[in-house]
Specification:
Aldehyde Dehydrogenase, Chain A, domain 1, homodimer, 2 domains, alpha/beta, 44% helix, 15 helices, four-stranded parallel β-sheet, 434 residues, Aldehyde Dehydrogenase, Chain A, domain 2
Amino acid sequence: MSDNQTQSDLQKRIIKQARAARLAAPAIASSPLEQRNRALEAMAQALLDHRGPITEANALDVADAQKDVANGSLGAAFVDRLTLSEKRLGSMVSALRELVAAPDPIGAEDQAWMRPNGLRVAKRRIPLGVIGIIYEARPNVTSDAAALCIKAGNAVVLKGGRRALRSNRAVVHALRQGLEAAGLPADVLQFIDSPQRQSVQTLLEQEDYVDLIIPRGGEGLVRYVSQHSRIPVIKHYKGVCHVYLDASAKAQRSVDIMLNAKVQRPSVCNAAETLLVHTSRADDLLPQVAQALVEAGVTLHADERAMAALKGRFGDKCVPATEDDLYAEYLSLDIAVAVVDGLDEAVAHIQRYGSEHTEAIVTEDYSNAEAFLNRVNSSVVLVNASTRFSDGGQLGLGAEIGISTTKLHAFGPMGLKELTTTKFVIRGDGQVRP
Amino acid sequence: MSDNQTQSDLQKRIIKQARAARLAAPAIASSPLEQRNRALEAMAQALLDHRGPITEANALDVADAQKDVANGSLGAAFVDRLTLSEKRLGSMVSALRELVAAPDPIGAEDQAWMRPNGLRVAKRRIPLGVIGIIYEARPNVTSDAAALCIKAGNAVVLKGGRRALRSNRAVVHALRQGLEAAGLPADVLQFIDSPQRQSVQTLLEQEDYVDLIIPRGGEGLVRYVSQHSRIPVIKHYKGVCHVYLDASAKAQRSVDIMLNAKVQRPSVCNAAETLLVHTSRADDLLPQVAQALVEAGVTLHADERAMAALKGRFGDKCVPATEDDLYAEYLSLDIAVAVVDGLDEAVAHIQRYGSEHTEAIVTEDYSNAEAFLNRVNSSVVLVNASTRFSDGGQLGLGAEIGISTTKLHAFGPMGLKELTTTKFVIRGDGQVRP
C-alpha cells in the first residue's frame, strides 16, 4: 500500500468519525441533565474498572518516552506529565464526579421579550454541537475535556499527542463504555487514533461536521491550528500580565500581591511578568518589593528609571531591561520592572506591551481604581488582588476549559457556558411579515 | 517601479492603517455614549454637506459599470445597487440618525457575584476593538457598517468592492470629518483605498491589529474570506429554511404563513425553501397550500409522496424533486415539497437537509410545538409564524449587522451587542491565591 493510499484511508476514517459525531450530536443535545450526569458518573466508574489496561497502556507510552529522555531528544519533565499515576487517575475520576454537581449550562432562557405584533421571542442556551479538542501530552486532558463537552450537551472529537496515544486510546475506550451504560451513543465521543500530523490538518477541514476547535498546548500548536483551521478556533496565546503599584498603594499589600502574582506559580499564564511602579514610590516602595522578589529568587529586568532607583543594590539579580524584556512572557523567576509617571503612563504601557490577558492595580485611590478598571480592556482587570485569580475555578465558573486570549465568543477564563450558544425561540399565533 | 514594489507598498499601507485603527481604538472604547452619538449625528450631517462630491464620485463609478453592462460583462441589476440616488443618500443619513436612539451596547454588567474570599467579580460589556468589514457593491454599507461599529465603541477597517471605490472614498471622507467634528480621532475609521484583491488578503493577515472580520456579500466572498483569514470571521452562508405543516395545522393560517415565507421576498435568506407536510394532511391541506403557491407563481419541486397527493393537477408548475432540490437555497419562486410521517421525520429531514438557519412549524398541538422548539437547533425556530421574522429589526435587536450561520460568538440575527465582548472586572482588598 502506497503512502498516498494510507494517508487517504486515514483521511477517510477521520471524516467518517467527524460525521459520526455530528450525527450523534442531536441525541446528546436533547438529553436531559439527569442522563448526562449519569453518563459522567458511569464514565468515572469505567475509568476505575479499566484501571488495569489504562496503566498498562500508559506504561508502554512512558517506556518509549524514557528511551528518548535517555538519548537526549526529550526533557525529563515530559515523562512526568505523561505518567498516569494512581493519584492522577484518581484526580481524573474526581474531576468527572465534581462535574456532576455543576448546574446545567443549557436550556436557560436568560432573555425573553414580546414584539409589538405579539410574537414572543426568547434566547435559549443550546449546545454548540461538535467540539474538536487538539492537545499535547497530558492524558488527563482526555477525560477532562470530554467530560466538559458532554456536560454541555456536545459531541466531541479528541486528537491527543502522539506520545500518549496508547494511554489516550485506553482512556477513551473506558469513557465510551460509560456513555453507553447511561444510554447515550458512544459516537458522541470520537478519538482520532493516529500519531500523524496530517490527521490534525484533516480534522481542521471538517467545517461541515465540527463547530469549534480548541487547541490546548504550546504556542506552536496554537499557531498551527489557528492558521490551518477552516473551523472557528478559540485560542490561548500568551499572558504578559502587569501589576501596577499606584502612588497610594499600601506597602505590605503591594509586597503580598506582587509575590503571589510572580512567585506562587511562575510557569502559568496568569503569573505577573511586568511590575510597574509610580514614580513617587520609586525610592520607598519599589526597593521594598524588589527586595522581597529577589529574596524569593526572582531576577529583575529593570528599565532605566528603575535601575536608577535601585542603585545597583541587587547585583546580578537586577539587570538592565531591553525592549524585548517589556514584551516577554518569562514563565520563570524573571520580571520586567518599569517606573511610570502615573496612571496614564501605566495604561499606555499595558496597551503597548501587554497581551490583553490580566492586569492588576494596587491603589487606595478611588478614581484611579475605577479609571484602571474602565480603561484597561484586558480579559481580567483587578484592583488590589493578585493576577493569579484569573482562572475559571478561582472566579467561580466551575470547571474551566481554558482561557481565551482572543475576544470573539469568549474572552478570558472559559467555563461550561462558553461551550454553548443561543438560539431564538419564537412563539406566534399566525403572524406574517407585512 | 516593479509590480512587487507596488504590491509591497500596498501591503505596507494596509498594515499601517490596521495599526492606526488599533492605536485609535482605546479612544473610542472609552468615549462616553454622548460623544459617540454626537459623532453619528455629525457623520449624518457630513453626508448631507458632501452630497455634491459623493454623487459626482458615484456617477463615475456608475458610468464605468454601465460600460460593462453595455459590453455584456455585468448584469444591469448591478448598476441599480451601485447607484447612490438622492433617496439612497437620504436613507444612509436616516440610518445614522436612527442609531443615535439605540441604547449603549457597552458598559453594562449583566452578571456580578462575590467569591467566598470576598472578591467581587463582574462581567462588563466592552467593545471588540477593531472590526474589519469586507463587502461588495452597495456603497450604503460603507456608512451603515461604520456607524454600527462606532456606536459599539469599535474602530473599523472597511474594504469595499472595487467598482464602488470612488463612491466609498467620498463617503468615508465625509464620515471621517464627522468623527473629528465630535472630537473622536478620524483614525477609528479606516478605508482600504485599493481595487486589488491582494489588499483583502493583507487585511486578513493583520491578526495583531484586527479582532473580527465580517464579510458581507455572496457565498464566494464569504468562502474566500473564511479560508484565508487568520482573524476570527463571522460568516453568513445560506438559508435553507423549512416550514412544517403538522397534522393539526389550521388551513388558512398554513396558507398565509407559507405564502409569506416563500413569496413576500423570495431572494432573501429567511425565505422558505422547503415545505414539509404531515401525511394525514397530504390530501386536504397540501393541495390547498400548493394551489395558493402556484397562483403566486411558485414552481413546486415535489417528492414522490407529494407528487402522488397532488396528482399532476398543476402541470409544469409541479415537477419531481431531485435529491439536490431538498438541499437547495433557491432564492427564487421555487420550493421543495415533501410529505413526512410526522414530527420525528420532519425534524430528521431538517437535520439532514437544513442549514441551521430558520425553521417554522404550524400546529395546534401543544406537545408537538414544544418538541419542535426543543429539538430543532437552528438559529431561529418558530411556532405559527413566518420564517421572514428571522431578522434583527423584526426581532427587536435594533440595527442589524448581519445573520450568523455559524454558532460561535453569535448564532442568527446579530445586533449591536454582537459587536461587543465582555471582560472580568474584579474588586479586591488584598486577596492573594493560597
